[in-house]
Amino acid sequence: MREKPKILIVDDELGPREALRMILRDNYHVETAANGNEALAFLYDTEFDMVILDIRMPDINGIELLGKVKEVAPETEVALITAYASVDTATDALRLGALDYIIKPFSSSSILEVVEKGLERRSSLLNISYKLEELQLLNKSLDDQVKKAYKNIQTHYEETVRSLV
Fold first, then answer.
1. What is the pTM of this model?
2. By CB distance 3.0 to 4.6 Å, which of 62, 117, 131, 146 could disulfide with 55?
3. pLDDT in tens for each of the 165 residues of the chain?
4. What is the phi/psi pair of residue 106, to 5°?
């Protein structure tokens, strides 16, 4: 049986944090953090498939935390959620690698849609990464074979020249 995807919800307000947890708990393994420092502690201990961050938090704001999440776990998808939307903040979030930008109040369907999109994107990126690793190993193997064949040809050439002389 495949393990449920892990999602971290970070919001300093209990209401939205619990609402998100309730929406996602049936299909995902959900952890919650009340602030950025608590979220970072989780991220150092556990690999999450997705993180949902509130933008306005007292210790580390969501944009700063997004940058730190991407440093610690670049393959983790991140969606930002806020009641105070601005074009500048949305632009900054997307530039730093956020998957989406959700405005409060949110619907459960919009949350589930964003999470599914994030998990699909993460899965695709991980598959591409695995394929790239396989190709690099194959490339190294082929490179080694070419070097061996070249050395073999060089040796035979030298032996042929010696025989003719």
1. 0.76
2. 62
3. 568 999 999 999 999 999 999 999 999 999 999 999 999 999 999 999 999 999 888 888 888 999 999 998 888 999 999 877 677 777 777 788 788 888 888 888 999 999 999 999 988 888 888 899 999 999 999 999 999 989 989 988 888 888 888
4. -110, 160
